[in-house]
């Protein structure tokens, strides 16, 4: 834990967490509800995208909408842990259907500046985070009904990664995976292995019983897909950052492993949409929306 950041005061609160799995992108999304008030947040939603045809759809988001309406929940927040490079956000679609404010870490401006240049977006693309309703600084607290939530900036995978600590649960984005899957890659622009290690240590300084909810799981060794671990399990068992692995070994491992990884299948459309808060790029003068394909940008 960084010296300036105390533990959240409300770790004893227990939100109701309902997971939703999109198997095309191996993404977990969540509805996080305050059982006392029926207020909730949605974390890391998915807009379905068929890349060969360029077709968008909302089957995954519609499951969340049906759940919220069936349980008569009120959406206060639609939260993004970072600018995802492997799936497209459905935040605007969910906001239109259910309300709530869309929030992300305030370092989104760094990501927007980086990829605004990669995609040659020009001056009409705003790089100030104004596509989102709320930009969270490190340590910001907010409420979901009577639940206290805290935004911790946990960069390393990307500069804008945020972990949302809500009661006894933490939503870690791509920073951590299930213990047998390790940790996030750091080879995207702005990624850094040292920074990621420090961010993970911050998360793992939470009480051992704290529930950790992942943004992705790819299975492993034939097991079922899983969405949640605990701080204690990660410290004992995570193959990349358990307690007996020091920072230098982690950095060496991460750099070597990242050299073997291919780019996510949906990285180019995902970045163009997610840096805009889940909105598609503006239509061309013929009324059609186009995605750019920068050649050799990630080689």
Structure description:
It contains seven helices and 14 strands. It is of the alpha/beta class and 299 residues long. Strands 1-2-3-6-7-8 form a six-stranded mixed β-sheet, with helices on one face. Strands 9-10-11-12-13-14 form a six-stranded mixed β-sheet. Strands 4-5 form a two-stranded antiparallel ribbon. Helix 1 runs parallel beside helix 2. It is globular, with a radius of gyration of 18 Å.
Summarize this structure briefly.
It is built from 7 helices and 14 strands. By secondary structure, the protein is of the alpha/beta class.
Describe how the helices and strands are arranged.
Elements: E1 16-22, E2 27-33, E3 39-43, E4 48-50, E5 55-57, H1 59-70, E6 74-79, H2 91-98, E7 101-105, H3 108-118, E8 134-136, E9 141-144, E10 147-153, E11 162-166, E12 169-171, H4 193-203, E13 211-213, E14 228-230, H5 231-237, H6 247-258, H7 267-274
Parallel strand pairs: 3-6, 6-7, 7-8, 12-13
Antiparallel strand pairs: 1-2, 2-3, 4-5, 9-10, 10-11, 11-12, 13-14
Helix pairs in contact: 1-2, 4-6
């Amino acid at each position: 834990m960084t010296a300036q950041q105390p533990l959240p005061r409300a770790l004893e609160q227990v939100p109701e967490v309902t997971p939703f799995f999109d198997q095309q992108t191996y993404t977990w999304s969540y509805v996080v509800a305050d059982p006392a008030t029926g207020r909730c947040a949605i974390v890391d939603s998915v807009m379905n995208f068929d890349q060969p045809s360029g077709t968008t759809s909302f089957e995954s988001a519609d499951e969340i909408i049906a759940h919220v309406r069936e349980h008569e929940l009120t959406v206060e927040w639609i939260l993004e842990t970072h600018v995802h490079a492997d799936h497209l956000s459905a935040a605007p679609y969910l906001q239109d259907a259910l309300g709530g404010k869309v929030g992300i870490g305030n370092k989104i401006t760094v990501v927007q500046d980086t990829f605004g240049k990669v995609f040659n977006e020009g001056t009409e693309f705003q790089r100030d985070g104004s596509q989102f309703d709320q930009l969270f600084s490190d340590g910001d607290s907010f409420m979901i009904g009577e639940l206290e939530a805290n935004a911790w900036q946990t960069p390393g995978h990307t500069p804008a990664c945020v972990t949302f600590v809500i009661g006894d649960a933490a939503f870690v984005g791509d920073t951590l995976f299930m213990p047998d899957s390790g940790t996030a890659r750091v080879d995207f622009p702005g990624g850094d292995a040292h920074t990621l290690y420090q961010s993970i240590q911050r998360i793992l300084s939470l009480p051992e019983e704290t529930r950790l909810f992942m943004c992705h799981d790819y299975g492993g060794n034939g097991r079922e897909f899983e969405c949640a671990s605990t701080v204690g399990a990660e410290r004992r068992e995570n193959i990349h950052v358990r307690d007996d692995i020091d920072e230098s070994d982690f950095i060496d491992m991460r750099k070597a492993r990242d050299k073997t990884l291919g780019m996510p299948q949906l990285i180019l459309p995902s970045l163009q949409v997610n840096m805009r808060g889940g909105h598609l790029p503006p239509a061309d003068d013929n009324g059609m929306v186009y995605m750019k394909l920068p050649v050799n940008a990630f080689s």
